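DM from R.C. (forwarded with permission)

"hey, sorry to bug you on a friday — could you get me a structure for this? deadline for the figure draft is monday and I only need the backbone to look sensible"
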Amino acid sequence: MRRLCGLLLALLGAVLPPAVAAPPAELRLQAALPVEGMAGGNLSGLARCADGRFWAVSDREDTRLYRLEPGPRAWQAAGEVLRAPPAPPSGLPWALRSGSRLLTPLRGGALDFEGLACDAAGARYLLSESQLAVLRVPPVGAPQWLALPPGWVAAARERGLLRRFNALLEGLALTPDGSRLWLAAEREGRGLIALRRTGEGWQCAAGCVLLAEQAKGRHPLASAEQRHALDFAALSWHAGKLYSLERLEHRLCRRDADSGAVERCWSFAAAALAPERRYASRYGLAEALWLDEQGAWIGLDNGGKANAAGERRPLILQFAAPAGGWNG
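My reply, with the result:
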């Protein structure tokens, strides 16, 4: 009987068309405001600390951390001097290290800060893509690089991550107590790396790599034939879940923090790709994410380029949380 049921199910699977997943629900835009005072428009990381203040980083500036103040017509950025000590060895092959050094004089920002998070004590954590390192900036005292576990870069590369120049790490998330840390490998392949702090220092969790994939997708305005590598552009932690900003597909997704498996996604394409906010980009410009029970804030790294309305300053898109909350 069991064998007969299996045969029937197999026949049905061969006859019926595969189920088509419903498109993700669109988030409701509350505001789309420019950021005044960030040189070059390179908003690459965004976080709100325990004191309620927003902070941002630029991937073109190694010596500046920005405090943001929201206003009715624009966000105002005020720079805070940042003095990072020399970064530890990255563990990358010579060719990838050399590529980063050669690019620095052209673009600025040797450390290439691409992510930002805060702990409950007010310390800020900055992700350096070029150095594959995380800088901890305490409220008082000198910044220090985290002593990440040896071998984590090799483990990621064995899974196909961290192999493409300028497509290495693009986001980080942190639990409020600072005991768990996730890093996002950007693309080709994209993935999630998990680290945990113990009494012996930082260690790999679940073999370091939660997720590694080489999948492709498409920009919402592209044809079905125009497919590119899927990416991660930022991460955020909220209420026991990990949230990923997925730039190409213009969506953010809730993921299981222990496996990286996607649970649910929401689209921000309607707001980001409104005619007046479009840029000449095939991939998308969303690079910064902060999320809490009230909503989500997505920062666009436009590199000083103007959108269709002529706006050259970076934009922050503010969205309301979905009905029932992010975990509903």
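R.C.: lifesaver. Residues 23-320 form a domain with the Neuraminidase fold (CATH 2.120.10).
me: no worries. The radius of gyration is 20 Å.
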